[in-house]
Amino acid sequence: MEAARDRLVPDVVADGLSVLFCGINPGLMTAATGHHFARPGNRFWPVLHLSGFTPRLMKPSEQGELPSLGLGITNVVARATARADELSAEEYREGGRLLAAKVKRLRPRWLAVVGVTAYRAAFDDRKAVVGPQTRTFGTTRVWVLPNPSGLNAHWTVHSMAEEYGRLRDATA
């Protein structure tokens, strides 16, 4: 796993997606496999299904099917680390700048940042909370979602699915 440190993982994107999900940065399992949210304890894929974004529970290795559903995945910071706390404040700020440019280029309807702490750091918005934001990037609206990491014990799979479902309802 340590060999995957600092690797880059390609985005799963297309122009004009309904929702572009944005993680904090790739973990080592993601970097080793090349599949987003690949760590077994990560709840992204089950929550995506339970919230109605996918018709079935998908595996990380099936991420290439997401654009056909109007969905994509990117990250605030591209560099893989074992833990998000290894990222510097400058990496978050630069990641936010690059993300804003990417979103303006790809024009998804929604940017869904999975992690309120990452959103706050990337966009210098200390008061942001989970839910829709007032910030936009061009015509793209922003929604902050709970981080699906297994380390985020404040949110259960079901409470996360409810919040992701609120975004899903907004896309309908």
TrEMBL record:
One of its GO terms (molecular function) is uracil DNA N-glycosylase activity. SUPFAM superfamilies: Uracil-DNA glycosylase-like. It holds the Pfam family UDG. GO terms for biological process: base-excision repair, AP site formation. The keyword DNA damage applies. Keywords: DNA damage, DNA repair, Hydrolase. InterPro entries: MUG/TDG, Uracil-DNA_glycosylase-like, Uracil-DNA_glycosylase-like_sf. Residues 10-171 form the Uracil-DNA glycosylase-like domain. Gene3D superfamilies: Uracil-DNA glycosylase-like domain (3.40.470.10). NCBIfam families: PRK10201.1. This is Mismatch-specific DNA-glycosylase.
